[in-house]
Amino acid sequence: MVNERTIQARLFESFEKYPGNIAVECQDNNITYRELDRHSNDIADWLLNMGIEKETFVGIAVNDKIALIAIILGVVKAGCVFVPLDCNYPDKRIEAMLLSSETSYVFTAESLLEKFKSIRRGLPPGLDILTVDESFYLPGRSLNLRRHEDKYRLSEAEKTRYTRQLLIDGWGIEGQERLKGTTVFVGGAGGSGSPLIQQLALCGFGTIIICDYDNIELSNLNRQSLHDESRIGMNKALSAKMTVERLNPNIKVIPRQEKITMDNVFDLVGDAEIIFDNVDSLAVKSALSHCAVAKGIPHLISSMIHINSYACIFHTPHTPCFHCLYDKKKIEDITKAKSLDGQYKVIPNSVASPALHLATGFAVNEAVKILLGFGKPAYNIYFHFNQYGSPGVLNTKGYRQITYPFSEHFRAISRNQGFDWDTGWHGTYVEEIKIEPDPNCPVCAQSKVFAGVQGAVFSKRAPWPPEASYKPEDKINIYFTSGTTGQPKAVVGKNESLTHFIAWEVKAFNIDETKRVSQLTSQCHDPFLRDIFVPLCVGGTICVPDSRETILDSRKMVRWLEESRVNLVHCTPGLFKVFASDGFSPGRRLCRGTWSIGTGYWETGYSWSTCMALRKPPWPSFFI
User: Fold this and answer.
1) Distance CA 211, CA 107 (A)
2) Hey, where are the domains in the chain?
3) 309 CB contacts (<8 Å, ≥6 apart)?
4) How many CA atoms lie within 13 A of 597 on its CB side?
5) pLDDT level of residue 347 (50, 70, 90 thresholds)
6) Do domains 7-145+463-544 and 182-434 have the same CATH topology?
7) Distant-in-sequence, close-in-space partners of 593: CB < 8 Å, separation ≥ 6
């Protein structure tokens, strides 16, 4: 139920009535009411699916104003209380604000994760960090919502265990905690899956989803080091779990004894941040690729044939996807032929163990670099580890099986670099082929599937309003006093108070969908509430300056107001003085005011907030 006297009801009405209007305009970017509604619904849905309770305090600290507004709306729609935090504040002040408000969660940008992890160390346990891609509203980007629970702090024993890797530049305790909080998906616990899973466990990846429906056979044991003779006949995923728990008891293993298909791949992968692909089946690789592209997460392949091996990172939109290099039609033909060939499984490929460690070690290293943000990921390169050191191709059935499904796009760019999959290559031990997206790819290009279409964490979008009861007396926000007493104090705002004020201003000054309202103050100052909720409740547009320097330079601000066609400004007396100092000429009419601006500006003594007409239309009204 959405009570008509709540801010949620006002927003719901506005989103329904003005879907095509521009809700927020910031430099060259803007977002419509329809898009803002959709993104904020996704955020609210994610919070509710996470099990967040009504009136939970959620801190919000992002720099991008479009993202900030969408997150605030998502938090409000979820029935929670938003606590605005300014990223420019000193860490100690943010820490004090979080502590005094007893905030349970803080929403921030992926780029600020380490900052808030550092702040969290100074707080009692229990603060979960929620991250989002600040540019989610741009084409090809996704929300990429993640929850970084506080339980991922390292114990003293873990710090000792990982001592040597903590010394690596860019790794450290913060990086290790990032790995501990990471969930990865591994398809296949056989030949290449074995060394890869072992390395993930030794590095300290916190949760490993291992999916393999096959059972252990004696012929596996020349290369599948996760298993031994005592486990012959056991499912490989279950055996892998036993080995990992012995190697590193700090790791959580989730075994899946299922065959990966297009029907179940999204459920199996779940909220994993990276897919490691160690399966033989091209159909399964295809399904994993579809999932990775839709989620916008890395898809790393690593495998071998004979004593050679290969590895590659697919990460749409930064790189080509698997289907740019592998022909989808050929994969379908091979899959169909195998299903009709009862002898296929009894014709084994020739493989040995050592090269597997080379390719899988590469894959795990790259995953660490991507997650921790150090070094340069080996994007847009296909690595072929030519252990023979020979310029000639391997004339074997296994080699032909691996190379046959290569796309003509991949073969052409390989030939252009002197690397022919049918005749031979350079003869170096590490062959590097620069790769690029196929403009006709049926997955990442042709079908217009961009990174993040599926969503990083959930696959079903609930309609809004959700089954939640909004009441006028509900808490909705927390703002802090200026701290003149020595310590800022948290003041809780009620839904009915905000709704009443918005309704009063809209009625008193005839504010409608034609209003273009500037957003000038920090989200930590209460004029911010007027900046966003007044226009959003009537279908108007929030106009955001291009930089903070524009706000502080009165002449730039005047120019920006004119160019942006702003016709309503909310500001503090101090900020108004900045404008008045040399942006406006004194002597113009002041309609109403509570503040004495001072000699040389305008002096007032009325009992309301201010609205003033400056120069001539279309100059904006100032609401102080």
Assistant:
1) 32
2) 7-145+463-544, 182-434
3) 302, 303, 355, 356, 358, 359, 385, 387
4) 26
5) low
6) yes
7) 602, 604, 605, 606, 608, 609, 610, 612, 624
Distances from the Cα of 324 to the Cαs of 293, 432, 555, in angstroms? 12, 17, 52
Distance CA(270)–CA(280), nearest Å, equals 21
For 459-511, how does the pLDDT look when each residue is reduced to its tens digit (9 = 90+)? 333 444 444 578 899 999 998 876 555 566 788 999 999 999 999 989 888 88
**SS3 sequence of 393-455:** CCCCHHHHHHHCCECHHHHHHHHCCCCECCCECCCCCEEEEECCCCCCCCCCCCCCCCCCCCC
Within a 10 A sphere around the Cβ of 139, how many other Cβ atoms?
Answer: 7
Give the residues across from 275 on adjacent strands.
185, 299
CA distance 273 to 296: 9
Beta bridge partners of 477: 82, 493
- Residue 468 carries which side chain, given as an amino acid letter? A
Q: Are 139 and 149 in contact (CB under 8 A)?
A: no
Query: How long is the chain?
Result: 624
Contact 493, 480 (CB under 8 A): no
Contacts of residue 498, Cβ cutoff 8 Å, sequence gap at least 6: 7, 476, 477, 529, 533
Six-digit token string for 29: 């970017």
How far apart, in whole angstroms, are the C-alpha atoms of residue 114 and residue 541? 33
- What lies within 8 Å, CB to CB, of 258 at 6+ separation is 211, 213, 264, 268
Q: What's the rounded Cα separation, in Å, for the pair 240 and 181?
A: 20
Q: Tell which residue, 560, 562, 557, has the closest CA to residue 581.
A: 557
CATH for the 182-434 domain, from 3.20.20.70, 3.40.50.970, 3.40.50.720, 3.40.50.620: 3.40.50.720
Instruction: State the CATH class of domain 7-145+463-544.
Output: alpha beta
Contacts of 103 (CB under 8 A, 6+ apart): 57, 58, 59, 83, 97, 127
Q: Which two tokens stand for residue 240?
A: 């892998």
Whole-structure pTM value:
0.61
Phi, psi of 216 (to 5 degrees): -75, 135
- CB count in 10 Å sphere of residue 122: 13
Pair 26, 65: CB distance under 8 Å? yes
If you search the block for the tokens 């429906």, which residue do you land on?
Answer: 213
| Beta-carbon count within 10 A of 376 CB | 6
Residue listed under structure tokens 């955020």: 43
- Dihedral Cα 325, 331, 332, 338, nearest 10 deg: 180
Average pLDDT (384-392) is: 83
Find the angle CA(232)-CA(233)-CA(237) to the nearest 5 degrees: 95
Helices then strands, each counted (H, E), the chain: 22, 23
Cα angle 509, 512, 516 (rounded to 5 degrees) comes to: 95
User: In the predicted model, what is the mean pLDDT of the chain?
Assistant: 83
Which structure tokens are listed for 434? Answer: 């620069």
| Torsions phi, psi for 62 (to 5 deg) | -135, 150
For 351, counting Cβ atoms within 10 Å of its Cβ (0-12 exposed, 13-18 middle, 19+ buried), the class is buried
Look up residue 132 and give its two tokens: 């989002």
The 10s digit of each residue's pLDDT in 103-155 is: 989 999 999 998 998 899 888 888 999 999 999 998 878 888 888 887 788 88
Strands across the sheet containing 490-494? 146-148, 128-132, 105-109, 57-61, 81-84, 475-480, 490-494
